[in-house]
Amino acid sequence: MEVASKGQVPATRGRRVFNREYLIFLAFVAPNFLLFIIFTYWPLVYQGYLSLVHWDMISPVKRFVGLENYAYLFSDPDFHRVMFNTLYFTVAVLVGSLALGLALALLLNQRLRGRNFARTVVFAPVILSGAAVGLVWAYIFDPNYGLMRTILGWFGLPPIDWLGSPAWAMPAVIIVYLWKNLGYSAMIYLAGLQNIPAELYEAARVDGAGRWQQFLHVTLPQLSPVTFFLIVTTIISSVQAFDIISVMTDGGPVGATTTLIWYMYEQGFRAFRAGIAAASGMLMFIILLVVTLVQVGWLQRKVYYE
Known about the structure:
The protein is mainly alpha-helical and 306 residues long. It has helices at 2-50, 68-75, 77-108, 115-123, 130-140, 147-154, 169-194, 198-206, 211-222, 224-239, 243-248, 260-269, 274-298, and strands at residues 53-54, 63-64.
């Protein structure tokens, strides 16, 4: 019996050490996990509940209506236009961010004098407040005394009411959004370019590849993980773009710049239709989830990992 009790001492100590380390682990993880549930999962669950009720955000009574809010959205012509505006804005921002960001990264990757300063200038708009950027650009686009009026005048062109015309308001917002966020995609692409081994370009030159062939067969495949990352993040961020639209156009004129996130805001905090706002928010969540899963499942197979 004495031998058995001695043999149990190390095992008991081991369990105590394990329990103490486990408690320390819980002490660090539990608060963060609790906050994550409170501020991420609970709002999503509550939004799903609100999408099934009728509530004016004033009365304490919430009347259950089932899928009526969703049926209203699918039958509302204004919501159809909102979805088109969202798709238009997202595709334009995605294509512009990838193409212009890569072009800027290729330029900033050259051994030029002052390139560090140029990189700082390109990235600077990313850290600026979206509201401040919107205010400045609203002044630039002003048809009476804005800078764009002066630039168009140099070429003998008439002034354009950028933010007051349904045809020009969305392009104006896209230009501003790209200007503010282009530095992010450029810096991500630049980091990817600097991680491409020089030996790959040397081998391509030995095989007789020109610059264009090197770009197609070396640069683009090596940048595919970066491109995949930017596609996912750009789509999510552009669908959620709010501040610039709020400051520059307020969703107008006549709904020309009303995207899904702005429609949610209008329905919830202006029309006090919490159920409609929550239903549109759930649709946005489902759309982003499906798009992201498709990207991960389809695009990731085309990504080259060294």
